[in-house]
Amino acid sequence: MIHSLFLINCSGDIFLEKHWKSVVSQSVCDYFFEAQEKAADVENVPPVISTPHHYLISIYRDKLFFVSVIQTEVPPLFVIEFLHRVADTFQDYFGECSEAAIKDNVVIVYELLEEMLDNGFPLATESNILKELIKPPTILRSVVNSITGSSNVGDTLPTGQLSNIPWRRAGVKYTNNEAYFDVVEEIDAIIDKSGSTVFAEIQGVIDACIKLSGMPDLSLSFMNPRLLDDVSFHPCIRFKRWESERVLSFIPPDGNFRLISYRVSSQNLVAIPVYVKHSISFKENSSCGRFDITIGPKQNMGKTIEGITVTVHMPKVVLNMNLTTTQGSYTFDPVTKVLTWDVGKITPQKLPSLKGLVNLQSGAPKPEENPSLNIQFKIQQLAISGLKVNRLDMYGEKYKPFKGVKYVTKAGKFQEDVGGDFFSIGEYHLTAAHCNSKGRKLQ
Amino acid sequence: MTDSKYFTTTKKGEIFELKAELNSDKKEKKKEAVKKVIASMTVGKDVSALFPDVVNCMQTDNLELKKLVYLYLMNYAKSQPDMAIMAVNTFVKDCEDPNPLIRALAVRTMGCIRVDKITEYLCEPLRKCLKDEDPYVRKTAAVCVAKLHDINAQLVEDQGFLDTLKDLISDSNPMVTLSEIASLTAGTCLTALNECTDGGGQIFIPGLLANYTPQDDREGPEVSICERVTPRLSHANSAVVLSAVKVLMKFMEMLSKDLDYYGTLLKKLAPPLVTLLSAEPELQYVALRNINLIVQKRPEILKHEMKVFFVKYNDPIYVKLEKLDIMIRLASQANIAQVLAELKEYATEVDVDFVRKAVRAIGRCAIKVEQSAERCVSTLLDLIQTKVNYVVQEAIVVIKDIFRKYPNKYESVIATLCENLDSLDEPEARAAMIWIVGEYAERIDNADELLESFLEGFHDESTQVQLQLLTGIVKLFLKKPTETQELVQQVLSLATQDSDNPDLRDRGYIYWRLLSTDPVAAKEVVLAEKPLISEETDLIEPTLLDELICYIGTLASVYHKPPSAFVEGGRGVVHKSLPPRTASSESAESPETAPAGAPPGEQPDVIPAQGDLLGDLLNLDLGPPVSGPPLTTSSVQMGAVDLLGGGLDSLMGDEPEGIGGTNFVAPPTAAVPASLGAPIGSGLSDLFDLTSGVGTLSGSYVAPKAVWLPAMKAKGLEISGTFTRQVGSISMDLQLTNKALQVMTDFAIQFNRNSFGLAPAAPLQVHAPLSPNQTVEISLPLSTVGSVMKMEPLNNLQVAVKNNIDVFYFSTLYPLHILFVEDGKMDRQMFLATWKDIPNENEAQFQIRDCPLNAEAASSKLQSSNIFTVAKRNVEGQDMLYQSLKLTNGIWVLAELRVQPGNPSCTVRLSLKCRAPEVSQHVYQAYETILKN
């Protein structure tokens, strides 16, 4: 049961509070501020803090802290999930989840919060339902409202809420019926100095953008469903069907949603699409060192690797870097000591490289720490796990929809401890793919 | 045109202005005013003064305005209940509104008014809403019942709302059902939940599964419940996933490990847990805290997933620290190389706390995985070479532990450590270094110089360092007395005369006196052999762990504390415990199966009336192994049959440690299978205590308890005891006293092989942790089926007792008469033949002095100890008793006892004949003790 919610910005101002039960004084947040001070870095504030009479469970999203006050035993995961859902809803409604956006729409925010939680229990958290109860603000609507005096508050009950499929509203109508699926995969790996994979896994999601009239019943099948052994489903998916036939059968929510997320971890299934050759050396008793990296494609299945960015966290004693690159451009920020190399596309004929001299602070000892190296990239039209959608069938409606699927592979972050034993590709939270692009036509 | 304009009015007369606006005639202006009020509310301003004015706006057709007013009311209804009464009439009216949205809004707000006076007015509208045609209203009303229950539980029951709620559980609409479950937090029944999992269970409501607990064993076979829950592992909501994990962890307890399904479940549990680690960092943190518990309970689930716990550089520090903890728990010989390589990387990171923990982790790996110790030490040495101050200090602290664990193995590194002496500025590191120098003083040439250097700033050091320095120098003195006399004088006087710290002074005086009176004793005390340190650190106590497993996914699991430890006045904090385990071979592998506490609910009558029980016990063959008493309760059904059969042997035989912290009067779940060993020990002797007046039952002579293990030899654990034999069963009656300052738990006992194969027939049962100054009496049943080895003397018994502190050894001599069996009476003819048959050189003669008994008395006294008189003769005024006895291993001993009643010296002569003459001496001692007591 969530008692209260405080929204706090980075400078420590409480700019919104909402109480679902009795009012809890703002002073409870002092414990949070204390923890924040101790943590030094905003990201390091522990998510669960105990105070003499309450528990504070918080998340940090978009430079805002969502701090909830708990008085009784409650699953913390539920609270954290809920807080993220709140932030998602704000994002969805206002286009951004920021202090300004929330302050600009404080009444809607309040209405939303009241609708999402009643007496501390979740009530309506599906965005489809919320959007019917409380209409999101648009420029057009606010103009209309100010002229006609009508409001953002829906005056009828959302119909979907009463059905057995609460995630879909009734009476949806489109002139162009479309269903798009984006298969987005991120690679997360650790590779040792010799280039062999120590650890690799793929975090994948299938995001859907469904604009279909009526009550369509979809089933999506895969060429190789065996790949998916660790999957989280959107509640609309019929689990039994998946268990028995390995087919995703569902009545979709209207609009954008995440259909499934999955993890492919067996290492032989995870191909690493790029390789990096690197050498960074510092001379003893000298104020400079050599720096040299080359990047090349590997197992890219004939697709172009694009959008490559390399960032290197150089040791603190590095003053400046004098580098030349065969492709793209680089910047070195002498304050944060971060080297960013924007490579762009790889053409196998001419591998991009970046080499040159590193200037160290004079007199400083040879740096001990190994700079870490991160790589971002993107491969269009390829799911690196090899996952392929076979077909999409629709039942329950007569019309013929336009169907499409798009594959994207992204690297999270290549973290490479140059000269160390490991270099790892960590994970990055990448923004979801765009659903408006038309993909390959399905059978 | 955004809402931020509402914040701009911060003038003095703000409230006044708003008041005027609220009472304006223009609808638009009113609405704007209410919005301003709400904007002030959101930043915590008190606008309750406007209550009457806002309530006035309530009577409107404009839905938006109405909604805004309700938002205001909900906020202040709780804090300003008296004013809320003003709105009651409108509530009641709105509950009848044709628009379901308004009806729902009204019923929702109504519930927020926490005033007893008006709750009565609310009942009628609420009842109507519970039966509303619109499910949305019904759903809202259901939550309202929960709110009302908080205010006035009695009223809710009186009004029959609970029954209405129960009807709603079978509501056709799943959303309504789910609200029910949210409000009916207690007493949920599984059938309703099944419906939810079929129909609407896919909806976001994680609280649901939390209630999905096996409160009642009758609900059906575990497997089918597990099968129902497993799909939830793929749910998109992590809270649902974790609840499902909890349910499975609970039910796995009841599944036999031999089942194929058990293995399948194990495999299914790993992926969702791993997936949780790719979620947002806050979720990861909670997941990791829970995984920490799961890994301790069932390491097999994640043993192949070590890599997912490798730290990523952008993890928040709280995630990093948790991952590190789990990495150490999962470290094993198979993966230690990888783990070490990772840890070494971490030790060069930036965050100081994290680096320290990483260094410490390397030390823990060394202690946990013996094969890796060498690599760990060399890794630590590499780290010391970095000269990073806090890394060096932390490394020294862990190296000290490694020295303790593997004595005389890695001392070659001491030289390297000594080089860094000057850079140590933290007390713990300084103390560790001093310990090392003192401990290995004989191998460090300049140990005296090193210690002397610390001594200079003695008074500025922290107590920890001072104490260690004192001990270190005394150690040095005992090892190199000639050169260090001055130094020891100096430290003793510093500690005793110049210090204000009583601990330090006391220790100083003790050393001083020891050294001045008995240097040999001092050596024994100060340089005593140190007990080994345990491999696993920071393990959660098994009973607590079991309780916490039941709380997976809750705050309790984040804090690793039972809810009772921190939930304030939470309603009905109930101790949960894992369901009892089936009696399969797994009990031997995991001794920590004891259910934690009493399960909720009443305690059905487990114990038959005492008389019945006694009768049953006496009818049974009491020779070990002993069958348990007839435990028949409603919840025993599962597996009770095989429990009494094959299961029991494995329980009693293989169990290395105590299985159950339970006793005879335990509630049903506790008494079922896992604890069947218990009644044999404690229960039985208690029963016999009840009947000790009955002649037939009185057993053989029992010596008074003697101290076997003094407290000073066993870190405060004093053990005294004696042996008894009653109706065929031998037991060792122990009295454990805790004379230390800390609580003792986890007792276990083992015997060395001995002449008659004596062995514990049941594990040592200590029901609760032994707190300081507490004494507990335990009767340990013994069997004679253990392995045999001839001891010197013959009746010597070597015993090892373990507790959470250490393992202690002692040896004791048992009186031979506990081995005299009940069927030791020999037939007369047989006796005569045997007596002749045994060669004369096997005859041993003894005298028992000061025994004023006559033949009758002696005979009956001996008989109660299973020495049977076969024949009696009177020769020359002397009574000759011919007696026989049999030992547990089948050896017969024949005796001729010559009693002279008139003899002033009261001497009794005893001749013993036996094919194994070495027992004679001990049989004689048994005679003597029996006759003289």
Automatic annotation (TrEMBL), chain A:
Keywords per UniProt: Cytoplasmic vesicle, Golgi apparatus, Membrane, Protein transport, Transport
GO function term, MF aspect, one: small GTPase binding
PROSITE patterns to which the protein is assigned, alphabetical: CLAT_ADAPTOR_M_1, CLAT_ADAPTOR_M_2, MHD
Primary location recorded for the protein, binned into one broad class: Golgi
Domain named MHD: residues: 176-417
Pfam family, one: Adap_comp_sub
Gene Ontology CC annotations of this record: clathrin adaptor complex; cytoplasmic vesicle membrane; Golgi apparatus
Entry keyword annotation includes Protein transport: yes
InterPro entries the UniProt entry points to: Adaptor_comp_med_subunit, AP2_Mu_C_sf, AP_mu_sigma_su, Clathrin_mu, Clathrin_mu_CS, Longin-like_dom_sf, MHD
Membrane topology type: Peripheral membrane protein
GO biological process: intracellular protein transport; vesicle-mediated transport
Protein location: Golgi apparatus; Cytoplasmic vesicle membrane
PANTHER family noted in UniProt: AP COMPLEX SUBUNIT MU (PTHR10529)
Role: Part of the AP-3 complex, an adaptor-related complex which is not clathrin-associated. The complex is associated with the Golgi region as well as more peripheral structures. It facilitates the budding of vesicles from the Golgi membrane and may be directly involved in trafficking to lysosomes. In concert with the BLOC-1 complex, AP-3 is required to target cargos into vesicles assembled at cell bodies for delivery into neurites and nerve terminals.
Family per record: Belongs to the adaptor complexes medium subunit family.
Protein name (database record): AP-3 complex subunit mu-1
The organism of origin for this protein: Rhinopithecus bieti (Black snub-nosed monkey)
UniProtKB/TrEMBL annotation, chain B:
Keywords noted in UniProt: Acetylation, Membrane, Protein transport, Transport
Main location: membrane
GO BP field: determination of left/right symmetry; heart development; intracellular protein transport; kidney development; vesicle-mediated transport
Its membrane topology: Peripheral membrane protein
UniProt-recorded Gene Ontology molecular function terms: clathrin binding; protein kinase binding
Keyword Protein transport (UniProt): yes
SUPFAM superfamilies attached to this UniProt entry: ARM repeat (SSF48371), Clathrin adaptor appendage domain (SSF49348), Subdomain of clathrin and coatomer appendage domain (SSF55711)
The keyword Acetylation is annotated on this UniProt entry: yes
Cellular location(s): Endomembrane system
Clathrin adaptor alpha/beta/gamma-adaptin appendage Ig-like subdomain domain location: 701-811
Stated name of the protein: AP complex subunit beta
Provenance organism: Rhinopithecus bieti
Gene that encodes it: AP1B1
